[in-house]
TrEMBL record, chains A, B:
Record-linked Gene3D superfamilies: q2cbj1_9rhob like domain (2.60.120.620)
Signal sequence residues: none
Pfam families: PhyH (PF05721)
The species this protein was found in: Enhydrobacter aerosaccus
Protein name: Ectoine hydroxylase
Length: 266, 266
């Protein structure tokens, strides 16, 4: 899996790439059916919503679940990440965002690199998310909103918001958002399960709450250039990993193989 | 202005009618430019958002502002209201919902008749909203969401929610919403300023918060059949009116005339 020159240009200009049906229905179904078993676990990696007992984010699942371990080694993630970041990569963060029907709360406007820099002392914005939709993402269930071209601004000043949701986030003020939107607008890629989105570490994004009866689970893998490893270990290891070993690409059927091994073991 | 038999049928089946560009740009601009003067007033009719000093809802503006008085007498509101409700009508409620950029909070899933019944002892669901978009309404600035056909269920059991927002509302539980959405889906009419939406008093609706930099002001006029006047006066008069005088239709240029009178007086 190699990105074309046109795709590289679009990523450079707009800050993201969207691929409907990037993973097969079979692969996506394997990922989806693995999640309930993850969410039901009482472990510190599972951050719950303010409103109650619903999982907002499950971190570091690839460290204990072979299905998600296979996903982070998927060549359709590893190879584009290396291409876009110009280096071999390691996993800085892995998360499944639940955005549960009715309960899924807002993600305020932010840059991911804002947090990686402020909390983890990541030298440069040479890390990024490669994400896969587990559910259909539509206008009603809290889709991601991006401000195209905003990644060109580098690291934007942000304020640590500890109160709005259950998860602390470095958020960007309204005046800055208004200016960025004037330049780039807002886009909200929607699509079926298996669609993928890659976005720059400084691309400003957020998402509204989920008031619909439909879950909106998305898996995010943050790849960081190995030459850009973090230098502060303030946050727990399961949120900002300290294992900088380069990630190898496995075979294209890595997720299917992991599922087969799992059923064989059961 | 008369609704066609097809429109009456659609309203009966779906519970709403949407009209892009229902009012002229000139009329809409008059309404829009009148709102800042309303919102800046410190009066009890102006309910502010929980988050701060931004107006969430301005009630009863037609009782003190001639521009909005003209709007409630507009034949493009009065005549369809009489047709749909099968009676002459009076104004049960008038409001401008600000849904301000960044600050506009959620409206939870509800039926308007739930409140009119529980709080105002309105005998039947023979009241409805005729609303006009003052701003462009898009997927990002907190558009209205409707569950088509849900009006057929009559008054649905609801719970008085006094905490979620600054405005108390009789809201419907998640299980019921999930069932209704399975039957009718969710629709979200979007359009430019001047677009109008008419919806049944028992049509279930809500709207997400406005995280965008764009205001989303909508004016709602609630017409009630004169034979269906409320019987309890628990809520303030400016929220649930007690003047049951039938509303006459003025001429089609009523808003333009009111604006001309206003400039002449200035």
């Amino acid at each position: 899996m190699k990105l074309t020159p046109e795709q590289l240009k679009q990523f450079d200009e707009e800050g993201y790439l969207f691929f409907p049906n990037y993973f097969s229905p079979e692969e996506t179904q394997i990922l989806k059916s693995e999640i309930p078993g993850v969410f039901q676990q009482r472990r510190e990696e599972n951050v719950r919503e303010k409103s109650g007992d619903v999982v907002r984010t499950a971190f570091a699942v690839h460290t204990y679940d072979p299905i998600f371990e296979a996903l982070v080694h998927h060549p359709r993630f590893v190879e584009p990440a290396e291409q876009l970041l110009g280096d071999r990569t390691y996993i800085h963060q892995f998360k499944i965002n639940g955005k549960a029907a009715f309960d899924g709360d807002v993600w305020q406007w932010h840059q991911d690199y804002g947090t990686w820099k402020a909390d983890d002392d990541m030298p440069e914005a040479r890390a990024m998310n490669l994400a896969v939709f587990v559910d259909d993402v539509n206008e009603f269930n809290g889709p991601l909103w991006f401000i195209p071209k905003s990644h060109k601004k580098g690291a934007i000043e942000a304020k640590h918001d500890l109160t709005t949701t259950s998860y602390p986030l470095w958020v960007i003020d309204n005046d800055t958002i208004a200016k960025l939107v004037k330049q780039g607008g807002i886009v909200s890629p929607k699509g079926g399960p298996g669609s993928a989105i890659f976005f720059h570490g400084t691309l400003v994004h957020g998402s509204p709450p989920n008031m619909s009866p439909w879950n909106r689970q998305i898996i995010y893998v943050t790849y960081n250039a190995v030459s850009n490893a973090i230098r502060r270990f303030k946050r727990p290891d399961y949120i900002a990993h300290r294992d900088f070993t380069p990630i190898d690409a496995w075979s294209d059927d890595a997720v299917l193989q992991a599922a087969r091994r799992k059923s064989a073991a059961e």
